[in-house]
Amino acid sequence: MKPLKSKIFSYCTTNINPPGELQLNQWLEENPDAEIVHALQSESITVRKDELERNLTVTLLYRET
Question: Do the Cβ atoms of 7 and 62 come closer than 8 Å?
Fold first, then answer.
């Protein structure tokens, strides 16, 4: 069995709809041999200069098939 690897996508923005889905889809298209074993999502929001800043992080644990 091949070892587990991880891929972390992190995006920080004042836009409430960051392009995380586009980043994930592009990576999946570029890595068709990746078998996703587990996915984790973390979100946080902070106020900076009177604006909400959102940080979205998605971590994929995968194996190359």
Answer: yes
What are the tens digits of pLDDT across the range 10-48? 888 776 665 667 788 899 999 999 999 999 999 898 888
Neighbours of 24 (CB within 10 A): 15
Q: Residue 19 has what DSSP assignment?
A: T
Max Cα distance, the chain (Å): 50
- Among 2, 1, 3, 4, residue whose Cα is nearest residue 38: 4
Are 61 and 35 within 8 A, CB to CB? Answer: no
Residue 24 is encoded by which pair of tokens? 């994930």
